[in-house]
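User: I'm curious what two different proteins look like when written out as structure tokens. Can you demonstrate?

Assistant: Sure. I'll show them one after the other, since each token string lines up with its own sequence. Here's the first protein:
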Amino acid sequence: MRTCLFILSLFCSSIIQGQHVLKAKVIAASNGRPIAGASVYIDNSSIGALTNAEGLVELRLPALQKIDLVVSSIGFTTFQKTIDISQASMLQEISLQEKIVDLQEVSVGGYTLEGWNVWGDFFKRIVFGNAPFASQCKILNTNQIHFRNYKTSDKVVAFSDEPILIRNNALGYLIKYDLVVFDANHTASSFSYAGHPFFTELKPDGPKQQDTWQRNREMAFFGSVNHFFRSLYRNTLAENGFMLKSAPNSVLLGASTRNVFARIPKTLTADSVAFAVDSMTVAMSFDGQIFVKIDPDIMFEGRPELKRHNPFLSQELISMLNLKTDQPVIVLFNGSYYDVLNLQQSGYWLWRESIATLLPLGFYVKG
């Protein structure tokens, strides 16, 4: 039987020393009872809490204009919504459908249900990649991840009964990842995945490990997609070592990417591909494709310790961006952007970006 989970959220927004206070109550629609232990958090952050026995939770937030609120409870579909803090006092009534999980290993609906022993390595290769830090990531609850193998269409879909727990020993985080979509063909030449991460800092063994984590985090940040979008938002692409050029879609990435980039005469500025939507939001839109090249000499100026022996600089530092639709990508000041699935990445960022290099949006480089 299907039931619903209603989240009756009375968001009370008030400024307390530069912070907002967000309050929510989580109840079940089927009987009106409060849901204890539901996770309420800000997407891609370390800000969150569990509801108490009355289904209540309170979060203190930085003075942001918009937040992506995520609520999850085992047995129910994860809820996510972008909320404008200026309208947060409005009553939010949100319902979630109960998950229906079929775990019988029989062929139904054109697919066969299979387990981690069959597809585990395949799943890790996609979500962790083969870039630096991938080997230091471990999934702690692999038994909760299941796969639908569509043999006739050469496709694999993954789903999880509960948030995936990932320990990143390179960056010092425990990540609770609410998997939304995982879809790949059998050769992993085409795939997409998305989810909602929540970060908890691991406890270091001592100052040396803490310093190692901080250095690794900074290396993971510099040159990342998040670094790029923060620079785009602030119109500081050139100062931060990013160079943009545009080309028709007929130009393909390949062994000659560097030569293709060199032959494109005109360098773009941030305001040629982005425009202000309002005082806190920027939209990026372009025709064809955008090539993004990183200049490490500019990016790491004054930070030689991060450039020296940096494993992320071992590849050709050119990426390509394509929009899948004619809708622009919306960018916020902290480098977050949406719709994530509307932006296709190739080249360097396809190799570099994965859960293994993921940082909370609240991360900022020291100094």
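Here's a second, unrelated protein for contrast:
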Amino acid sequence: MTKTICYVKQKLSVFSALLLVLMFSTSAAIAGPNVLNVDEVTEVPPTITGARKINPTTISVKLSDNQIMAFDFYGDNIFRLFQDTTGGIIREPKAEPEATIMVDQPRAVVSKLNLKEEGDVITITTSKISLQLDKKTTLFKVINLATESVVIEETAPIFFEKDKVTLTLKECDDEYFYGGGVQNGRFSHKGQAIAIENENSWTDGGVASPTPFYWSTKGYGMMWHTFNKGKYNFGAEDKGTVTLYHEVNYLDVFFMVNDGAVALLNDFYQLTGEPVFLPKFSLYLGHLNAYNRDYWTENEKGILFEDGKRYKEGKEDSVSIKESLNGELNNYQFSARAVIDRYKNANMPLGWLLANDGYGAGYGQTSTVDGNIQNLKSLADYSQKNGVEIGLWTQSDLHPKDGVSVLLQRDIVKEVRDAGVRVLKTDVAWVGADRKSVV
């Protein structure tokens, strides 16, 4: 059936008319091939009936079905497009636990905002962009006034379904797309479709930390103002078309027009806040593993170690050797310190090391939390002397908790203050189950 966009009144009237025709034309319906199929009826989409400037930054556009599209400008090159078919007003997206996407003051100065209606075109102009709306189709396109080029162009009206809204834009042959958060193994998305949801996957093609933002080499960026799941298709199924949707019941998106990645990312940061300023050591290679849990046994098919023998990781037995952080148990080659030395001996710069990155590992083998903290400090002292910072991962809480074994007890204050931990690998127990909690 042809898709429709919430034109209930028109649909009912068309259906009623068809019903009358069928009731009084039974013989024709049976005998003749030229019967009108109700499923083939295509609804007439709305048109634009007018537009007005309602405040210094916002243009309200009225449609023939009495719907309102709002174009709210957050700068001369950034605008927010909002439409709620149920009549709701511009608002923050819902999040549980409570969270926000934008900073407290996301707006920049809008030096001018002009509105002009000429023939079938409504034009909204700032000092940097011109946004043109076709009154007959409601489709819009955006022109970068500096380059006099069309950078954003709709190819189909906004499509509202129950708990899903879809935007359809034009894709150019020489246009490429980047963003969407951490898309494992992917950075250029042309001809691909990416999920904007936490798939809890760390493998190639999976998504673990999504962001509802992308930018195009055509000179624009888009941020969907929502925490809900979505999908961005950059010509994977329909070449020449960018199809974007989120599982929401209203439209709330930001478009920004600028020259290049740096400028577009700065526009994104204007809305969401500056990115984390990472320390220099974090830009180097990191090594993650567990060095306080497993046992190693000689095995001719195992890994070759410094003593010239081969060992295989496995369960504890009478001849196995347990690993540790500092090699203090006559087990140096199975320790975290040995890893640091191997990088150094290979003249391969290492920036940081997580020594407890495995379920049930911990970072010490003493009978007290303070004893384990001291063990961690010993590794940190050694690693920092060799230019490597120490970090931790956890599957448990950040602070001491009754009922947890000493091996897995955590004390983030002492870990940072006393042991010298400088890296934290977050997990579900730390930040919650999805992007709302991370934000």
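A detail about the second structure: The first strand starts at residue 48 and ends at 55.
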